[in-house]
What does this fold into?
Amino acid sequence: MPVRKKRGRMQEKIEQFEQMCRAAGLKLTPQRIAIYTELMKTDSHPSADKLYGRVRKIFPRISLDTVNRTLITLSQIGAAFVVEGSGDPKRYDGNVETHQHFKCVNCRKIYDFRHKPYDNIKVPPSIRKRFDVLRKTVYLEGICDWCRRRLKKKVRR
It folds into this structure.
């Protein structure tokens, strides 16, 4: 994609983010915008710690706590998602469009994928009676292609 289109899409996303913040009654601080922008620049589903390393290059005095609280706030207003899983620090995704996740249990990388049948998962009536379902996600774990090839090479040796 040409750089000009990427900049245009990023600006569009930042404007949408600003509207979400205003609707939620949140101040638009430069730090909050930087955290959101850095999250949007990556598809690696970073943890708060990883994002903190990136944002600190822009705001050297920012704290990890500020980054962590901001990411939680972003997920609460719908500007980001917490990628579900277990055992690792929370990972965040700035892509709020419908999609699913696959996590490699070996290298820990999280991949986005889209499988339309997963978009409309039916909630069982027994769950609907007891709970208000706010979001339905699909999260798969396994071994990615890269790790699978690497592991096969080790076995052959």
